[in-house]
Protein backbone atom coordinates (compact mmCIF):
# COMPACT_ATOMS: atom_id res chain seq x y z
CA UNK A 1 0.00 0.00 0.00
CA UNK A 2 2.82 2.44 0.85
CA UNK A 3 4.52 1.69 -2.47
CA UNK A 4 1.35 2.48 -4.43
CA UNK A 5 0.75 5.59 -2.33
CA UNK A 6 4.27 6.85 -3.02
CA UNK A 7 3.93 6.05 -6.72
CA UNK A 8 0.58 7.81 -6.95
CA UNK A 9 1.94 10.85 -5.14
CA UNK A 10 4.95 11.03 -7.45
CA UNK A 11 2.73 10.82 -10.54
CA UNK A 12 0.43 13.52 -9.07
CA UNK A 13 3.48 15.73 -8.49
CA UNK A 14 4.54 15.22 -12.11
CA UNK A 15 1.07 16.14 -13.42
CA UNK A 16 0.91 19.15 -11.09
CA UNK A 17 4.31 20.32 -12.35
CA UNK A 18 3.13 19.96 -15.95
CA UNK A 19 -0.02 21.97 -15.22
CA UNK A 20 2.00 24.64 -13.42
CA UNK A 21 4.35 25.04 -16.40
CA UNK A 22 1.46 25.27 -18.86
CA UNK A 23 -0.52 27.77 -16.75
CA UNK A 24 2.60 29.79 -15.95
CA UNK A 25 3.66 30.12 -19.57
CA UNK A 26 0.10 30.98 -20.58
CA UNK A 27 -0.07 33.69 -17.90
CA UNK A 28 3.33 35.13 -18.81
CA UNK A 29 3.27 34.85 -22.58
CA UNK A 30 -0.25 33.68 -23.53
CA UNK A 31 -1.17 36.45 -26.01
CA UNK A 32 2.35 36.43 -27.51
CA UNK A 33 2.31 32.63 -27.77
CA UNK A 34 -1.05 32.69 -29.54
CA UNK A 35 0.13 35.49 -31.81
CA UNK A 36 3.39 33.69 -32.55
CA UNK A 37 1.62 30.41 -33.21
CA UNK A 38 -0.83 32.14 -35.55
CA UNK A 39 1.95 34.01 -37.34
CA UNK A 40 3.90 30.76 -37.64
CA UNK A 41 1.22 29.09 -39.75
CA UNK A 42 2.06 31.18 -42.83
CA UNK A 43 4.17 28.54 -44.51
CA UNK A 44 4.84 24.84 -43.87
CA UNK A 45 8.31 25.26 -42.34
CA UNK A 46 7.17 28.05 -40.03
CA UNK A 47 4.07 26.05 -39.08
CA UNK A 48 6.20 23.04 -38.15
CA UNK A 49 8.61 25.13 -36.08
CA UNK A 50 5.76 27.07 -34.42
CA UNK A 51 4.10 23.86 -33.25
CA UNK A 52 7.40 22.51 -31.93
CA UNK A 53 8.39 25.70 -30.06
CA UNK A 54 4.93 26.29 -28.57
CA UNK A 55 4.82 22.72 -27.25
CA UNK A 56 8.30 22.91 -25.70
CA UNK A 57 7.32 26.16 -23.96
CA UNK A 58 3.91 24.92 -22.79
CA UNK A 59 5.12 21.37 -22.01
CA UNK A 60 1.89 20.13 -23.58
CA UNK A 61 1.02 19.10 -27.12
CA UNK A 62 -2.63 19.09 -25.99
CA UNK A 63 -2.45 22.82 -25.19
CA UNK A 64 -0.92 23.51 -28.60
CA UNK A 65 -3.57 21.38 -30.30
CA UNK A 66 -6.40 23.26 -28.58
CA UNK A 67 -4.87 26.63 -29.53
CA UNK A 68 -4.67 25.51 -33.15
CA UNK A 69 -8.24 24.21 -32.88
CA UNK A 70 -9.44 27.71 -31.94
CA UNK A 71 -7.65 29.19 -34.99
CA UNK A 72 -9.09 26.57 -37.34
CA UNK A 73 -12.56 27.05 -35.86
CA UNK A 74 -12.41 30.77 -36.69
CA UNK A 75 -11.00 29.91 -40.13
CA UNK A 76 -7.76 31.76 -39.39
CA UNK A 77 -5.65 28.67 -40.15
CA UNK A 78 -6.13 26.20 -42.99
CA UNK A 79 -6.48 22.48 -42.31
CA UNK A 80 -3.16 21.57 -43.95
CA UNK A 81 -1.25 24.14 -41.88
CA UNK A 82 -2.99 22.83 -38.76
CA UNK A 83 -1.84 19.28 -39.50
CA UNK A 84 1.76 20.45 -39.94
CA UNK A 85 1.65 22.41 -36.67
CA UNK A 86 0.56 19.26 -34.84
CA UNK A 87 3.40 17.26 -36.40
CA UNK A 88 5.76 19.84 -34.91
CA UNK A 89 3.89 19.62 -31.60
CA UNK A 90 4.40 15.84 -31.50
CA UNK A 91 8.15 16.33 -31.83
CA UNK A 92 8.00 19.18 -29.30
CA UNK A 93 6.54 16.95 -26.60
CA UNK A 94 9.19 14.29 -27.37
CA UNK A 95 11.95 16.90 -26.98
CA UNK A 96 10.37 17.99 -23.70
CA UNK A 97 10.43 14.41 -22.39
CA UNK A 98 14.08 14.08 -23.41
CA UNK A 99 15.02 17.34 -21.65
CA UNK A 100 13.18 16.32 -18.47
CA UNK A 101 14.89 12.92 -18.48
CA UNK A 102 18.28 14.62 -18.91
CA UNK A 103 17.79 16.88 -15.88
CA UNK A 104 20.07 16.30 -12.92
CA UNK A 105 18.94 16.10 -9.29
CA UNK A 106 20.55 19.37 -8.14
CA UNK A 107 18.75 21.40 -10.83
CA UNK A 108 15.31 20.76 -9.28
CA UNK A 109 15.69 22.73 -6.01
CA UNK A 110 17.57 25.47 -7.89
CA UNK A 111 14.66 25.92 -10.34
CA UNK A 112 12.07 25.88 -7.56
CA UNK A 113 14.02 28.51 -5.59
CA UNK A 114 14.59 30.68 -8.69
CA UNK A 115 10.89 30.41 -9.61
CA UNK A 116 9.79 31.43 -6.12
CA UNK A 117 12.13 34.42 -6.07
CA UNK A 118 10.98 35.49 -9.56
CA UNK A 119 7.25 35.35 -8.80
CA UNK A 120 7.78 37.29 -5.54
CA UNK A 121 10.12 39.90 -7.03
CA UNK A 122 7.42 41.89 -8.79
CA UNK A 123 3.67 41.50 -9.14
CA UNK A 124 3.41 41.28 -12.92
CA UNK A 125 1.89 38.54 -15.04
CA UNK A 126 5.17 37.93 -16.84
CA UNK A 127 7.21 37.47 -13.67
CA UNK A 128 4.49 35.57 -11.83
CA UNK A 129 3.85 33.26 -14.79
CA UNK A 130 7.56 32.76 -15.47
CA UNK A 131 8.14 31.96 -11.80
CA UNK A 132 5.31 29.41 -11.80
CA UNK A 133 6.77 27.81 -14.93
CA UNK A 134 10.22 27.45 -13.32
CA UNK A 135 8.65 25.96 -10.18
CA UNK A 136 6.68 23.55 -12.38
CA UNK A 137 9.81 22.36 -14.20
CA UNK A 138 11.55 21.91 -10.85
CA UNK A 139 8.64 19.85 -9.54
CA UNK A 140 8.70 17.69 -12.67
CA UNK A 141 12.39 16.92 -12.12
CA UNK A 142 11.71 16.30 -8.43
CA UNK A 143 8.92 13.89 -9.36
CA UNK A 144 11.42 11.84 -11.37
CA UNK A 145 13.47 11.31 -8.21
CA UNK A 146 10.35 10.26 -6.27
CA UNK A 147 9.17 7.99 -9.10
CA UNK A 148 12.52 6.22 -9.08
CA UNK A 149 12.38 5.79 -5.31
CA UNK A 150 8.75 4.64 -5.40
CA UNK A 151 9.41 1.96 -8.02
CA UNK A 152 12.53 0.65 -6.25
CA UNK A 153 10.59 -1.87 -4.09
CA UNK A 154 8.62 -3.01 -7.15
CA UNK A 155 11.69 -4.74 -8.58
CA UNK A 156 11.11 -7.58 -6.12
CA UNK A 157 7.30 -7.69 -6.42
CA UNK A 158 6.28 -11.09 -7.88
CA UNK A 159 2.86 -9.72 -8.89
CA UNK A 160 4.30 -6.79 -10.84
CA UNK A 161 7.00 -8.91 -12.44
CA UNK A 162 4.33 -11.40 -13.56
CA UNK A 163 2.16 -8.58 -14.94
CA UNK A 164 5.07 -7.05 -16.86
CA UNK A 165 6.01 -10.48 -18.21
CA UNK A 166 2.40 -10.88 -19.35
CA UNK A 167 2.53 -7.51 -21.11
CA UNK A 168 5.84 -8.46 -22.71
CA UNK A 169 4.09 -11.40 -24.36
CA UNK A 170 1.09 -9.27 -25.42
CA UNK A 171 2.51 -6.08 -26.91
CA UNK A 172 -0.85 -4.88 -28.39
CA UNK A 173 -2.35 -5.01 -24.88
CA UNK A 174 0.61 -2.96 -23.58
CA UNK A 175 0.05 -0.41 -26.33
CA UNK A 176 -3.65 -0.06 -25.43
CA UNK A 177 -2.85 0.20 -21.70
CA UNK A 178 -0.37 3.05 -22.26
CA UNK A 179 -2.86 4.81 -24.57
CA UNK A 180 -5.57 4.62 -21.90
CA UNK A 181 -3.20 5.96 -19.21
CA UNK A 182 -2.18 8.89 -21.46
CA UNK A 183 -5.83 9.62 -22.23
CA UNK A 184 -6.83 9.56 -18.53
CA UNK A 185 -3.93 11.79 -17.49
CA UNK A 186 -4.35 14.02 -20.59
CA UNK A 187 -0.58 13.87 -21.02
CA UNK A 188 1.54 11.56 -23.12
CA UNK A 189 4.58 13.21 -21.51
CA UNK A 190 3.58 11.99 -18.04
CA UNK A 191 3.19 8.41 -19.27
CA UNK A 192 6.52 8.49 -21.11
CA UNK A 193 8.23 9.71 -17.93
CA UNK A 194 6.59 6.87 -15.99
CA UNK A 195 7.81 4.39 -18.63
CA UNK A 196 11.26 5.96 -18.30
CA UNK A 197 11.26 5.32 -14.54
CA UNK A 198 10.23 1.67 -14.95
CA UNK A 199 12.83 1.23 -17.67
CA UNK A 200 15.57 2.64 -15.43
CA UNK A 201 14.58 0.00 -12.86
CA UNK A 202 15.31 -2.70 -15.49
CA UNK A 203 11.71 -3.90 -15.30
CA UNK A 204 10.87 -3.47 -19.00
CA UNK A 205 12.22 -5.25 -22.06
CA UNK A 206 13.09 -3.13 -25.10
CA UNK A 207 10.12 -4.41 -27.24
CA UNK A 208 7.74 -3.70 -24.33
CA UNK A 209 9.21 -0.20 -23.92
CA UNK A 210 8.66 0.35 -27.65
CA UNK A 211 4.98 -0.71 -27.41
CA UNK A 212 4.30 1.42 -24.33
CA UNK A 213 5.83 4.54 -25.91
CA UNK A 214 3.73 4.06 -29.06
CA UNK A 215 0.62 3.69 -26.91
CA UNK A 216 1.41 6.90 -25.02
CA UNK A 217 1.69 8.70 -28.37
CA UNK A 218 -1.79 7.54 -29.36
CA UNK A 219 -3.36 8.44 -26.00
CA UNK A 220 -1.93 11.96 -26.14
CA UNK A 221 -3.93 12.66 -29.32
CA UNK A 222 -7.26 11.50 -27.86
CA UNK A 223 -7.82 14.42 -25.44
CA UNK A 224 -7.92 17.14 -28.18
CA UNK A 225 -10.33 14.95 -30.17
CA UNK A 226 -12.68 14.62 -27.18
CA UNK A 227 -12.44 18.36 -26.47
CA UNK A 228 -13.49 19.28 -30.03
CA UNK A 229 -16.22 16.73 -30.73
CA UNK A 230 -18.82 19.52 -31.01
CA UNK A 231 -16.54 21.92 -32.85
CA UNK A 232 -17.03 22.79 -36.55
CA UNK A 233 -16.08 20.17 -39.13
CA UNK A 234 -12.84 21.98 -40.06
CA UNK A 235 -11.57 21.70 -36.48
CA UNK A 236 -12.56 18.06 -36.10
CA UNK A 237 -10.74 17.19 -39.33
CA UNK A 238 -7.43 18.48 -37.94
CA UNK A 239 -7.82 16.74 -34.57
CA UNK A 240 -8.97 13.40 -36.05
CA UNK A 241 -6.23 13.67 -38.69
CA UNK A 242 -3.60 13.98 -35.96
CA UNK A 243 -5.05 10.99 -34.10
CA UNK A 244 -5.20 8.99 -37.34
CA UNK A 245 -1.54 9.73 -38.08
CA UNK A 246 -0.49 8.47 -34.66
CA UNK A 247 -2.66 5.34 -34.83
CA UNK A 248 -1.54 4.42 -38.36
CA UNK A 249 2.10 5.10 -37.45
CA UNK A 250 1.89 2.86 -34.37
CA UNK A 251 0.12 0.06 -36.24
CA UNK A 252 2.73 0.24 -39.00
CA UNK A 253 5.61 -0.03 -36.51
CA UNK A 254 4.19 -2.62 -34.10
CA UNK A 255 4.84 -5.70 -36.33
CA UNK A 256 8.52 -4.68 -36.39
CA UNK A 257 8.82 -3.88 -32.67
CA UNK A 258 11.14 -6.80 -31.87
CA UNK A 259 13.52 -6.34 -34.87
CA UNK A 260 13.66 -2.62 -34.16
CA UNK A 261 14.33 -3.35 -30.50
CA UNK A 262 17.24 -5.61 -31.46
CA UNK A 263 18.61 -2.86 -33.70
CA UNK A 264 18.35 -0.31 -30.87
CA UNK A 265 20.23 -2.67 -28.55
CA UNK A 266 22.99 -2.95 -31.15
CA UNK A 267 23.35 0.84 -31.12
CA UNK A 268 24.32 0.60 -27.44
CA UNK A 269 22.09 3.50 -26.43
CA UNK A 270 21.87 4.37 -22.75
CA UNK A 271 19.22 2.10 -21.17
CA UNK A 272 18.33 4.92 -18.79
CA UNK A 273 17.33 7.18 -21.74
CA UNK A 274 15.93 4.53 -24.08
CA UNK A 275 12.20 5.40 -23.72
CA UNK A 276 12.72 9.10 -24.49
CA UNK A 277 15.14 8.22 -27.32
CA UNK A 278 12.45 5.97 -28.85
CA UNK A 279 9.83 8.66 -28.29
CA UNK A 280 11.91 11.35 -30.01
CA UNK A 281 13.18 9.15 -32.86
CA UNK A 282 9.71 7.77 -33.64
CA UNK A 283 8.10 11.24 -33.79
CA UNK A 284 10.93 12.64 -35.91
CA UNK A 285 10.59 9.83 -38.48
CA UNK A 286 6.79 10.01 -38.43
CA UNK A 287 6.87 13.79 -38.90
CA UNK A 288 9.29 13.62 -41.83
CA UNK A 289 7.16 10.96 -43.54
CA UNK A 290 3.77 12.63 -43.01
CA UNK A 291 4.84 16.24 -43.64
CA UNK A 292 4.98 15.92 -47.47
CA UNK A 293 1.64 14.10 -47.32
CA UNK A 294 -0.13 16.70 -45.16
CA UNK A 295 -2.10 18.10 -48.11
CA UNK A 296 -3.27 14.62 -49.05
CA UNK A 297 -4.17 13.94 -45.41
CA UNK A 298 -6.17 17.17 -45.23
CA UNK A 299 -8.15 16.27 -48.37
CA UNK A 300 -8.78 12.75 -47.06
CA UNK A 301 -10.19 14.18 -43.82
CA UNK A 302 -12.46 16.49 -45.84
CA UNK A 303 -13.96 13.40 -47.47
CA UNK A 304 -14.27 11.52 -44.18
CA UNK A 305 -15.75 14.43 -42.22
CA UNK A 306 -18.21 16.37 -44.43
CA UNK A 307 -19.05 20.04 -43.94
CA UNK A 308 -21.54 20.92 -41.24
CA UNK A 309 -25.11 21.37 -42.49
CA UNK A 310 -25.91 24.98 -43.26
CA UNK A 311 -27.94 26.76 -40.60
CA UNK A 312 -29.22 30.24 -40.11
CA UNK A 313 -26.93 32.36 -38.01
CA UNK A 314 -28.64 34.00 -35.05
CA UNK A 315 -28.59 34.49 -31.30
CA UNK A 316 -27.60 31.44 -29.26
CA UNK A 317 -27.95 32.58 -25.66
CA UNK A 318 -30.83 35.04 -25.35
CA UNK A 319 -34.20 33.37 -24.84
CA UNK A 320 -37.75 34.75 -24.66
CA UNK A 321 -38.68 32.96 -21.43
CA UNK A 322 -35.72 34.47 -19.55
CA UNK A 323 -37.26 37.95 -19.86
CA UNK A 324 -39.42 36.95 -16.89
CA UNK A 325 -36.20 36.81 -14.86
CA UNK A 326 -34.41 40.02 -15.89
CA UNK A 327 -31.16 39.22 -14.08
CA UNK A 328 -30.85 35.92 -15.95
CA UNK A 329 -31.77 37.67 -19.21
CA UNK A 330 -29.05 40.25 -18.60
CA UNK A 331 -26.48 37.48 -18.07
CA UNK A 332 -27.51 35.77 -21.32
CA UNK A 333 -27.38 39.08 -23.19
CA UNK A 334 -23.82 39.57 -21.93
CA UNK A 335 -22.81 36.20 -23.39
CA UNK A 336 -24.40 37.20 -26.70
CA UNK A 337 -22.53 40.51 -26.75
CA UNK A 338 -19.28 38.62 -26.16
CA UNK A 339 -20.11 36.63 -29.32
CA UNK A 340 -20.30 39.92 -31.20
CA UNK A 341 -16.87 40.79 -29.85
CA UNK A 342 -15.54 37.41 -31.02
CA UNK A 343 -16.85 38.13 -34.52
CA UNK A 344 -15.15 41.53 -34.45
CA UNK A 345 -11.90 39.84 -33.39
CA UNK A 346 -12.21 37.42 -36.32
CA UNK A 347 -12.73 40.36 -38.71
CA UNK A 348 -9.76 42.24 -37.27
CA UNK A 349 -7.45 39.21 -37.37
CA UNK A 350 -8.39 38.50 -40.99
CA UNK A 351 -7.59 42.10 -41.87
CA UNK A 352 -4.24 41.89 -40.07
CA UNK A 353 -3.42 38.60 -41.83
CA UNK A 354 -4.23 40.11 -45.23
CA UNK A 355 -2.15 43.21 -44.42
CA UNK A 356 0.88 41.17 -43.35
CA UNK A 357 0.75 38.45 -46.01
CA UNK A 358 -0.47 40.49 -48.98
CA UNK A 359 -3.19 37.94 -49.81
CA UNK A 360 -6.85 38.73 -50.44
CA UNK A 361 -8.28 35.44 -49.21
CA UNK A 362 -8.63 36.42 -45.52
CA UNK A 363 -10.77 39.41 -46.55
CA UNK A 364 -13.36 37.33 -48.42
CA UNK A 365 -15.52 36.53 -45.40
CA UNK A 366 -15.50 39.96 -43.77
CA UNK A 367 -18.83 41.06 -45.35
CA UNK A 368 -20.50 37.88 -44.06
CA UNK A 369 -19.01 38.39 -40.58
CA UNK A 370 -20.19 42.00 -40.57
CA UNK A 371 -23.71 40.87 -41.51
CA UNK A 372 -23.64 38.51 -38.51
CA UNK A 373 -22.48 41.36 -36.26
CA UNK A 374 -25.38 43.54 -37.46
CA UNK A 375 -27.89 40.73 -36.90
CA UNK A 376 -26.68 39.92 -33.38
CA UNK A 377 -26.40 43.57 -32.38
CA UNK A 378 -29.97 44.24 -33.49
CA UNK A 379 -31.25 41.17 -31.64
CA UNK A 380 -29.43 42.09 -28.42
CA UNK A 381 -30.58 45.70 -28.60
CA UNK A 382 -34.24 44.70 -28.97
CA UNK A 383 -33.90 42.07 -26.25
CA UNK A 384 -32.40 44.49 -23.73
CA UNK A 385 -35.05 47.12 -24.53
CA UNK A 386 -37.74 44.64 -23.45
CA UNK A 387 -36.24 44.04 -19.99
CA UNK A 388 -38.49 44.89 -17.05
CA UNK A 389 -36.20 47.37 -15.33
CA UNK A 390 -38.50 47.63 -12.32
CA UNK A 391 -37.17 44.22 -11.25
CA UNK A 392 -33.55 45.34 -11.58
CA UNK A 393 -31.49 47.34 -9.13
CA UNK A 394 -30.22 50.75 -10.23
CA UNK A 395 -26.76 49.28 -10.88
CA UNK A 396 -28.19 46.38 -12.93
CA UNK A 397 -30.41 48.72 -14.98
CA UNK A 398 -27.40 50.93 -15.64
CA UNK A 399 -25.42 47.80 -16.59
CA UNK A 400 -28.02 46.83 -19.19
CA UNK A 401 -27.73 50.26 -20.82
CA UNK A 402 -23.93 50.05 -20.77
CA UNK A 403 -24.12 46.60 -22.37
CA UNK A 404 -26.36 47.96 -25.12
CA UNK A 405 -23.95 50.83 -25.71
CA UNK A 406 -21.04 48.39 -25.99
CA UNK A 407 -22.96 46.26 -28.52
CA UNK A 408 -23.69 49.38 -30.58
CA UNK A 409 -20.03 50.41 -30.44
CA UNK A 410 -18.98 46.95 -31.60
CA UNK A 411 -21.34 47.28 -34.54
CA UNK A 412 -19.69 50.60 -35.42
CA UNK A 413 -16.29 48.90 -35.21
CA UNK A 414 -17.54 46.23 -37.62
CA UNK A 415 -18.59 48.95 -40.06
CA UNK A 416 -15.18 50.60 -39.83
CA UNK A 417 -13.39 47.31 -40.49
CA UNK A 418 -15.60 46.36 -43.44
CA UNK A 419 -15.97 49.76 -45.13
CA UNK A 420 -12.64 51.20 -44.05
CA UNK A 421 -9.76 48.94 -43.05
CA UNK A 422 -10.66 45.96 -45.25
CA UNK A 423 -11.12 48.14 -48.33
CA UNK A 424 -7.85 49.95 -47.62
CA UNK A 425 -5.93 46.70 -47.21
CA UNK A 426 -7.58 45.33 -50.35
CA UNK A 427 -6.51 48.46 -52.24
CA UNK A 428 -2.94 47.97 -50.99
CA UNK A 429 -2.91 44.36 -52.24
CA UNK A 430 -4.78 45.00 -55.48
CA UNK A 431 -2.55 47.92 -56.45
CA UNK A 432 0.63 46.17 -55.41
CA UNK A 433 1.54 48.99 -53.03
CA UNK A 434 4.37 48.55 -50.56
CA UNK A 435 4.77 50.62 -47.41
CA UNK A 436 8.18 51.77 -46.31
CA UNK A 437 9.67 49.44 -43.64
CA UNK A 438 9.20 52.14 -40.98
CA UNK A 439 5.64 52.87 -42.07
CA UNK A 440 4.66 49.19 -42.10
CA UNK A 441 6.18 48.68 -38.64
CA UNK A 442 4.18 51.64 -37.28
CA UNK A 443 0.92 50.31 -38.72
CA UNK A 444 1.62 46.81 -37.40
CA UNK A 445 2.20 48.24 -33.92
CA UNK A 446 -1.16 50.01 -34.01
CA UNK A 447 -2.90 46.88 -35.35
CA UNK A 448 -1.44 44.88 -32.43
CA UNK A 449 -2.52 47.50 -29.88
CA UNK A 450 -6.04 47.50 -31.33
CA UNK A 451 -6.35 43.71 -31.14
CA UNK A 452 -5.03 43.78 -27.56
CA UNK A 453 -7.54 46.52 -26.63
CA UNK A 454 -10.42 44.49 -28.02
CA UNK A 455 -9.49 41.53 -25.83
CA UNK A 456 -9.21 43.78 -22.77
CA UNK A 457 -12.60 45.35 -23.56
CA UNK A 458 -14.17 41.89 -23.79
CA UNK A 459 -12.79 41.07 -20.35
CA UNK A 460 -13.97 44.36 -18.85
CA UNK A 461 -17.54 43.66 -20.03
CA UNK A 462 -17.62 40.52 -17.89
CA UNK A 463 -15.35 41.40 -14.97
CA UNK A 464 -15.96 45.18 -14.54
CA UNK A 465 -12.36 45.22 -13.36
CA UNK A 466 -11.25 48.73 -12.39
CA UNK A 467 -7.57 48.11 -13.16
CA UNK A 468 -8.36 46.83 -16.66
CA UNK A 469 -10.67 49.81 -17.22
CA UNK A 470 -7.81 52.11 -16.22
CA UNK A 471 -5.50 50.19 -18.54
CA UNK A 472 -7.89 50.76 -21.45
CA UNK A 473 -7.91 54.50 -20.79
CA UNK A 474 -4.12 54.57 -20.53
CA UNK A 475 -3.76 52.66 -23.79
CA UNK A 476 -6.10 55.21 -25.39
CA UNK A 477 -3.45 57.82 -24.70
CA UNK A 478 -0.82 55.48 -26.12
CA UNK A 479 -2.91 55.03 -29.27
CA UNK A 480 -3.16 58.79 -29.66
CA UNK A 481 0.61 59.09 -29.21
CA UNK A 482 1.40 56.25 -31.65
CA UNK A 483 -1.04 57.63 -34.24
CA UNK A 484 0.35 61.16 -33.95
CA UNK A 485 3.97 59.97 -34.08
CA UNK A 486 3.27 57.77 -37.11
CA UNK A 487 1.54 60.61 -38.96
CA UNK A 488 4.45 62.94 -38.21
CA UNK A 489 7.02 60.34 -39.28
CA UNK A 490 5.05 59.72 -42.45
CA UNK A 491 5.03 63.41 -43.34
CA UNK A 492 8.79 63.52 -42.63
CA UNK A 493 9.31 60.61 -45.04
CA UNK A 494 7.28 62.52 -47.64
CA UNK A 495 9.51 65.54 -47.19
CA UNK A 496 12.51 63.27 -47.71
CA UNK A 497 10.98 62.16 -51.02
CA UNK A 498 10.80 58.46 -50.16
CA UNK A 499 9.01 56.75 -53.03
CA UNK A 500 7.09 54.14 -50.99
CA UNK A 501 5.71 56.82 -48.67
CA UNK A 502 4.60 58.99 -51.58
CA UNK A 503 2.75 56.09 -53.20
CA UNK A 504 0.98 55.01 -49.99
CA UNK A 505 0.45 58.41 -48.37
CA UNK A 506 -3.35 58.56 -48.32
CA UNK A 507 -3.60 54.84 -47.55
CA UNK A 508 -1.25 55.13 -44.57
CA UNK A 509 -3.16 58.05 -43.07
CA UNK A 510 -6.56 56.40 -43.70
CA UNK A 511 -5.50 53.22 -41.88
CA UNK A 512 -4.19 55.28 -38.96
CA UNK A 513 -7.46 57.19 -38.79
CA UNK A 514 -9.60 54.04 -38.83
CA UNK A 515 -7.55 52.24 -36.19
CA UNK A 516 -7.79 55.32 -33.96
CA UNK A 517 -11.58 55.36 -34.45
CA UNK A 518 -11.84 51.67 -33.58
CA UNK A 519 -9.89 52.17 -30.36
CA UNK A 520 -12.09 55.13 -29.44
CA UNK A 521 -15.17 52.88 -29.69
CA UNK A 522 -13.55 50.09 -27.66
CA UNK A 523 -12.46 52.39 -24.83
CA UNK A 524 -16.06 53.46 -24.17
CA UNK A 525 -16.64 50.22 -22.27
CA UNK A 526 -14.40 51.58 -19.50
CA UNK A 527 -16.17 54.93 -19.18
CA UNK A 528 -19.12 53.86 -16.95
CA UNK A 529 -16.83 51.97 -14.55
CA UNK A 530 -14.44 54.89 -14.10
CA UNK A 531 -17.23 57.47 -14.15
CA UNK A 532 -19.00 55.77 -11.22
CA UNK A 533 -15.78 56.18 -9.23
CA UNK A 534 -15.43 59.83 -10.23
CA UNK A 535 -12.23 59.13 -12.16
CA UNK A 536 -13.29 60.78 -15.43
CA UNK A 537 -13.18 64.45 -16.28
CA UNK A 538 -16.37 65.88 -17.75
CA UNK A 539 -14.45 67.97 -20.27
CA UNK A 540 -10.98 68.19 -21.73
CA UNK A 541 -11.28 72.03 -21.77
CA UNK A 542 -9.45 74.10 -19.20
CA UNK A 543 -11.39 75.84 -16.46
CA UNK A 544 -12.76 79.31 -17.51
CA UNK A 545 -10.47 81.21 -15.14
CA UNK A 546 -7.44 79.46 -16.67
CA UNK A 547 -8.50 80.25 -20.23
CA UNK A 548 -7.26 83.30 -22.13
CA UNK A 549 -9.21 86.47 -21.27
CA UNK A 550 -10.09 87.14 -24.88
CA UNK A 551 -10.09 85.37 -28.17
CA UNK A 552 -7.33 86.62 -30.46
CA UNK A 553 -8.77 88.64 -33.30
CA UNK A 554 -8.51 87.25 -36.79
CA UNK A 555 -5.91 88.80 -39.05
CA UNK A 556 -7.30 91.38 -41.43
CA UNK A 557 -8.44 90.12 -44.77
CA UNK A 558 -6.20 91.23 -47.59
CA UNK A 559 -7.99 92.63 -50.50
Describe this structure in words.
Helix 10 packs across helix 13. The chain has helices at residues 2-39, 44-58, 61-73, 79-102, 107-121, 125-151, 158-168, 171-185, 188-200, 206-220, 222-227, 233-253, 257-266, 274-290, 294-304, 326-357, 366-385, 394-430, 437-463, 466-495, 499-503, 505-523, 527-532. 76% of the residues lie in helices and 0% in strands.
* Rounded radius of gyration (Å): 29 Å
Biggest sheet descriptor: none
User: What is the total tally of β strands?
Assistant: 0
Please count the helical segments: 23
Indicate the mean pLDDT: 79
Low-confidence region ranges: 539-543, 545-559
Strand pairing plus helix content: what structural class? mainly alpha
Strand content: under 5%
Q: How helix-rich are the residues, as a percent range?
A: over 70%
**Distance separating the two termini:** 106 Å
Principal-axes geometry comes out as globular
Helix-strand pattern? HHHHHHHHHHHHHHHHHHHHHHH
Amino acid sequence: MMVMLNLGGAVALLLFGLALVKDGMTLAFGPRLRKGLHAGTRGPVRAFVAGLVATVLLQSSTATALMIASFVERQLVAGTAGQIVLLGANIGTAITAWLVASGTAWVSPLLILAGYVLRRSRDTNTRKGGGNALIGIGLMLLSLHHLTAATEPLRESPALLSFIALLGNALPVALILAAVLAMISSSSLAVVVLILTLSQSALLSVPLTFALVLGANIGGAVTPVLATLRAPAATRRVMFGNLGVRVIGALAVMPFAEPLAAWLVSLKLSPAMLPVDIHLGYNLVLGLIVWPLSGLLSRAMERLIPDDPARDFGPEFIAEHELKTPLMALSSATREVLRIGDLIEAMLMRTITAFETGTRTPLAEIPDLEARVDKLQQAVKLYLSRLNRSQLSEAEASGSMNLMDYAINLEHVGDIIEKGLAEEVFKKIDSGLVFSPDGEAELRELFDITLHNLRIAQTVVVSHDINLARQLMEIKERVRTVEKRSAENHLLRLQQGRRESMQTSSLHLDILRDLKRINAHLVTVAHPILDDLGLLRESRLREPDAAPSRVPSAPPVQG
